[in-house]
Amino acid sequence: MRVLYILYGSAVLVGLSIAQYQGWSLARVNEVKNVPRSVRDNPGSYRSVYSSYHHYTGGK
Amino acid sequence: MSTSGPTPPGKPQTRALNCPGCGAALTVRSFNNAVTIVCDSCHSILDAKDPNLQILQQFKAATDKDRPLIPLGTRGKIRGTDYEVIGFERRTIHVEGVAYSWHEYVLFNPYKGFRYLTEYDGHWNDCSTLKALPDVVSFSSPPKVKYLGETYKHFQTARASTSFVLGEFPWQVRVGESVEVSDYVSPPRVLSSEQTGNEVTWSMGEYMLGKDVWKAFRLSGSPPEAQGVYENQPSPMSGEVKSIWLTFAFLLLALVVLMIGFDLSAQNKEVFTGYYKYDSNQRGEASFVTDDFEVKGHTSNVELKTTTDLNNRWIYLNYALINETTGQAFDFGREVSFYHGYDSDGSWSEGSANDTVAVPSVPPGRYYLRVEPEGDPAYGMTYYTITVKRDVPQYSFYGIALGALLLPAILLSWRALSFEHLRWAESDHPMITTSGGDE
């Protein structure tokens, strides 16, 4: 049992190290390939996948 | 479980005998050592010390007959010594109107004397009488006794009566006789005291698996499956709990070392800051791009912080972190809102005027941000700052890792506690008592 736990714990720590080194994050981010260079000059030509997000309207 | 007192063994002798009750031939295995013999046919209890085998008691076994799992006359090896099963009895206690019975087997070796095997619901104990008295631990609750440096905790005290007998016994056995039995446990051992009047006999039992009993006596088939948790049954998690928490402490130390190491080695470097304003009244294209900036080092995260002057308002920002060279973009949206006020419950606040997000696994290169703010047209002007940092430690992963390391230790501890709870549930000292509990 102890050996299994050591192996499991080591795997957790290795996973943590990879996550930290690679800069993983829990944030929801969408990766888009080949965005045209024209966006630099015409920002309005880019359509974000989050632009239709339902916005908060509220307070208490 | 406990056994009655022994009689010192002598050299075995055999003699042809017949039961004075029914005339059946008696098989006597320890003639000089037995105090009573029970006829296999009519179940008369005979005085083995009397040359005429005087009948001490006759009982009706027909309705109450019990069959030993190890037949009388079977020989086996216990702790390296050969023993023969010469006697068998069933004993019963009553707790809250419920009868609980166990079986005892008398084992005999002409040179080593007597020892006993007990069986209850598939749980076995190898028992022998003590040669010295245990010490009572003063002022302990529940009561405890100490024997050979080991402390035993009181488990149960009950009145046990003999309800069935067969074979030979080194004491004056009678059906119906009763003694007060107290058990003290320290798994895998149990100390039992049997009190009749002023006479107290102590014995020690050690837990045995049914398959080991079967192997010792070379019995065919398989032993009855053990039911529930027995009073001195060793916990399968015994020793594991301490070991796993000790290992957890080492893993936690490694986690802290990793955290310090990554904290010290992380760039955590600010690579861009921009100050902006957004007028939600203004019509037209709101999106814009920032100046480009260099993201250095190995593939790692990029943290983006939005600081606003929001006050009972919200703003939504569509962000795209775009690599100028490859065209790879990380697209995400952030809502920033901050509301506060005062009502009948007192003051309240919700949200925050600032927001931080980590964009994962961003390769090195030159990047710019495309920003598209949105807001309620009624709000007017919002001022905000965008700060970009490279390679920032993410502490949420340490929390997840800590949880993952804790989980097996907590589960094992819970299993060990459940096992002990089941063990003590049948005792005079249950771990959890109900309102109508007996403690």
Low-confidence stretches of chain B: 1-6
Helix/strand-derived class of chain B? mainly beta
> Beta fraction of the residues of chain B?
over 45%
Helix content of chain A: 25-40%
Mean pLDDT across all amino acids of chain A: 84
Oligomer: heterodimer
Helix content of chain B: 10-25%
Overall average residue pLDDT of chain B = 89
Major β-sheet annotation of chain A: none
The biggest beta sheet of chain B is recorded as: 8 strands, antiparallel, barrel
Please write the string of helix (H) and strand (E) elements of chain B: EEEEEEEEEEEEEEEEHHEEEEEEEEEEH
Spans of chain A with pLDDT under 50 lasting ≥5 residues?
none
Number of helices of chain B: 3
Strand order in the largest sheet of chain B: 7-8-9-10-16-15-14-13
Q: Show the largest interface.
A: A-B, 47 and 66 residues
Report how far the terminal alpha carbons of chain A are from each other: 51 Å
Written description of the protein model:
The complex is a heterodimer of chains A (60) and B (439). The longest helix of chain A is centred in the first third of the chain and has 21 residues, at 2-22. Chain A is built from 1 helix and 1 strand. Chain A is mostly helical and 60 residues long. Chain B has 439 residues and is mainly β. Chain B is built from 3 helices and 26 strands. Chain B has helices at 210-216, 240-265, 395-425, and strands spanning 17-18, 25-26, 36-38, 45-47, 55-57, 75-78, 81-95, 98-109, 113-120, 123-129, 135-137, 144-147, 150-169, 178-186, 189-196, 199-208, 269-279, 288-289, 293-295, 300-308, 313-323, 329-343, 346-352, 354-362, 365-374, 381-390. In chain B, the strands form 4 sheets. Chain B has an 8-stranded antiparallel barrel with strand order 7-8-9-10-16-15-14-13. In chain B, strands 18, 19, 21, 22, 23 and 25 form a 6-stranded antiparallel beta sheet that branches. The longest helix of chain B is centred in the C-terminal third of the chain and has 31 residues, at 395-425. Chain B is rod-shaped. Chains A and B meet through α1 and β1 of A and α2, β18, β20, β21 and β22 of B. β1 of chain A pairs antiparallel with β22 of chain B.
